[in-house]
């Protein structure tokens, strides 16, 4: 079992007197359906939440447990949801940046420093560090990844009740064999991202659509 993301960046900031450090991360860059969700988390100086880690390295039950602990102990949390229509309109990278900026704006405190999982957020009024594998290297970014992942999973579980033929509750919109098979049998539902290559490859599902850019991005 992983030991959890370290607090090295947090402790260095806290020692310098930076008390409002915000970790930012997203969930949902890679799926064929549904929104991208971003979260920003400010932990109180000196806080340590045992087990906080990259959400992808945690089982669902542990993510749900940590989600509640983070919500109870964080100084501030901001969450933003950018829907599939916006993703199709501005592309997934820009939608991710938009979600991160909105999550930061939703915080009840203004950050003095922002740490992200590599993606640069434009227009910030404070410094930022864009860390490769940030959700494994910073506990604040890891906490944000948990908030974003659990929030998005719950959105897709609700979508599963509305569109039960696709299995969203199980795969959360990712391009699993089950999901691709459902697309072949039923075609896309209103939540599918029309510009993703995994969708476009379903032969004539979107016959008549004019698309010049196709993307398939892993989370």
Short description:
By secondary structure, this protein is of the alpha/beta class. It is built from nine helices and five strands. Helices cover 41% and strands 13% of the residues.
Characterization of the model:
With 219 residues, the protein is an alpha/beta fold. The chain contains nine helices and five strands, in the order H-E-E-H-E-H-H-E-E-H-H-H-H-H. It has helices spanning 8-15, 60-73, 84-90, 92-105, 134-137, 139-162, 168-171, 177-186, 197-200, and strands spanning 21-27, 36-42, 76-82, 113-116, 128-130. The protein has a five-stranded mixed sheet with strand order 3-2-1-4-5, with helices on both faces. Helix 2 packs across helix 6 and helix 3 crosses helix 4. The chain starts with 7 loop residues before the first helix and ends in a 19-residue tail after the last helix.
Query: Looking at the structure, what is the overall shape?
Result: globular
Strand content: 5-15%
Query: Could you tell me how far the N terminus lies from the C terminus, measured between alpha carbons in angstroms?
Result: 22 Å
| Strand line-up in the sheet with most strands | 3-2-1-4-5
Q: What is the H/E string?
A: HEEHEHHEEHHHHH
In DSSP terms (H or I, runs of 4 or more residues), the helix count works out at: 9
Helix percent band: 40-55%
Structural class of the helices, strands and pairings?
Answer: alpha/beta
Given as residue ranges, the uncertain stretches (5+ residues, pLDDT < 50) are: 202-219
| Radius of gyration, in angstroms, nearest whole number | 18 Å
Largest sheet: 5 strands, mixed
Would you tell me the overall average pLDDT?
A: 91
How many E strands?
5
């Amino acid at each position: 079992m992983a030991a959890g993301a370290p607090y090295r960046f947090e402790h260095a900031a806290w020692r310098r007197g930076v008390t409002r450090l915000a970790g930012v991360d997203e969930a949902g860059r890679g799926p064929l359906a549904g929104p991208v969700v971003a979260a920003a988390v400010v932990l109180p100086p000196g806080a340590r939440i045992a087990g906080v880690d990259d959400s992808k390295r945690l089982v669902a039950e542990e993510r749900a447990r940590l989600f509640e602990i983070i919500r109870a102990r964080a100084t501030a949390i901001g969450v933003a949801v950018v829907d599939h229509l916006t993703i199709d309109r501005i592309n997934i990278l820009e939608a991710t940046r938009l979600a991160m900026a909105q999550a930061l704006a939703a915080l009840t405190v203004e950050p003095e420093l922002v740490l992200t999982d590599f993606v640069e957020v434009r227009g910030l009024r404070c410094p930022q560090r864009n860390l490769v594998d940030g959700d494994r290297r910073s506990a604040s970014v890891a906490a944000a990844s948990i908030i974003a992942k659990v929030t998005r999973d719950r959105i897709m579980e609700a979508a599963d009740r509305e569109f039960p033929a696709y299995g969203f509750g199980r795969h959360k919109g990712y391009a699993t064999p089950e999901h691709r098979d459902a697309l072949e049998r039923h075609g896309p539902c209103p939540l599918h991202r029309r510009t993703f290559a995994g969708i476009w490859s379903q032969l004539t599902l979107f016959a008549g659509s004019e698309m010049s850019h196709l993307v398939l991005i892993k989370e």
